[in-house]
Amino acid sequence: MHELAVAESIVGAVREKLEHAQVRRVLVEVGRLSGVVPDALQFCWELATSGTGLEGAELEIVRLPGRGHCRGCSTEFDTNDFITLCECGSADVEVLGGQELRIREVEVV
Ligand SMILES: [Zn+2]
User: Fold this and answer.
1) Could you write out the DSSP letters of every residue in 25-84?
2) How is residue 78 annotated by DSSP?
3) From first to last of its 109 residues, what are the pLDDT tens digits of the chain?
4) What protein residues have CB closer than 5 angstroms to ion ligand 1?
5) Can you say whether the dihedral through the CA atoms of 95, 61, 57, 103 is positive or negative?
6) CA diameter of the chain
7) Is 17 helix (H, G, I), strand (E, B) or coil?
């Protein structure tokens, strides 16, 4: 399961930085085009943190919208699809946002 690997890498990154801290909450930003399903990530969180220093820590997920820029007509638009197609019909779309997957905040006790 992809989300389990993601959850484990979040746990790993937090532990690396805050080795001895007791973590209460982790806030992550997940873009709509990142391929990560928030519900699945939330589901895997407990499993990934079990037996680690993050056991019992809460995972909070903030969703970020997808954003595309059409090279054909220079329009910028919101998109939540993996296949981004501009209204002008062009598929030559540069993804500007929505692929984020990052830790924004870690709350320690
Ligand atoms: Zn266009």
Assistant:
1) EEEEEEETTSS--HHHHHHHHHHHHTTSTTTT-EEEEEEE--EEEETTT--EEE---SS-
2) E
3) 599 999 999 999 999 999 889 999 999 999 999 999 999 999 999 999 999 999 999 999 999 999 999 999 999 999 888 778 899 999 999 999 999 999 999 999 8
4) 70, 72-73, 75, 86, 88, 90
5) positive
6) 53
7) helix
The model carries a pTM of 0.84
Q: Residue holding tokens 């946002």?
A: 97
Torsional class of 98: left (φ above 0), alpha (ψ -120 to 50), beta (otherwise): left
**67 C-alpha to ligand 1 centroid (Å):** 13
CB-based contacts of 33, cutoff 8 Å, min separation 6: 66, 79, 80, 82, 95, 98, 99
Tell me, in angstroms, the distance from the centre of ligand 1 to residue 79's CA: 13
